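Hey,
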Amino acid sequence: MSQDPPEPDALAERERAVLALERRGFSGPGAKERAIREELGLAPVRYYQLLNALLDDARALAHDPVTVNRLRRVREGRRGDR
């Protein structure tokens, strides 16, 4: 049985995984960074680079508008603090 090819406008599996991780709540210091390393196999710096790019991606907004809009508000708030 073969898998259907991904839709051209669909997010890649890693991109969906990044958004899924952002939807979760983490307790305790370092829990999120540990999950990033263990579950995604990424350094936290690279993870946040990918996440930041996703926030400007219309496909990510279509996939998970609640998470993307929440993170965009957080990012804009931080920019305003600078």
